[in-house]
Hints:
This protein is mainly alpha-helical. The protein is 47% helix and 9% strand.
Amino acid sequence: MYARFGKRICDLLVSIAALPFVAVVVAVLAIAIKAEDAGPVFYNAPRVGRGGREFIMFKLRSMKVNAPDLVMEDGSTYNGADDPRMTRVGAFMRKTSLDEFPQFLNVLMGSMSVVGPRPDLRRETELYRGNEGRKLEVKPGITGYAAVYGRNSLPWRERLKLDVHYVENLSFALDLRIFLRTFTTVLRQEGVYVDEGALGEATAGQADEMRGPRP
């Protein structure tokens, strides 16, 4: 009952309540983003949602315009503290997760939930093994089980295991625990970035090339 009806009701209540705060935060950050490099404020990111359907996930742009994709050895996207693709404003937004705030609009539109597995790129879903594809049985979330218990510090496959665990144990109690835990995770800035040691040689070379010579 909760998974079919209650979860959507909770999503609507939380997202509607959050909208005024989200609007203020986005307005302030939009000015900062424009002031830094005059590029677009939003990055409309294609992601794969429930049932394998692709949707546009709204984000504030945290990277330089036309930044390339850096891929880890396991096929996931690189997200490191010394990522040369990030703008100064973007680095701040990543640490505080403020770049994800526009996703409350995705929740209102029904393509995302407040709590659920973080959505993957299409090329990442093509790398799923075993039961990992079960994460697509539910709507992706702004926050989720893997996002509050390890986040990017965990290897991608470990995050997928946590996503499947969430799907298999979905309940109001679990969603509430994850939602409350999110505040602690964000305030402590836990697991924001991947371990630099997890980079493959090719990816590390790409990153070094983008950074240029060090002083």
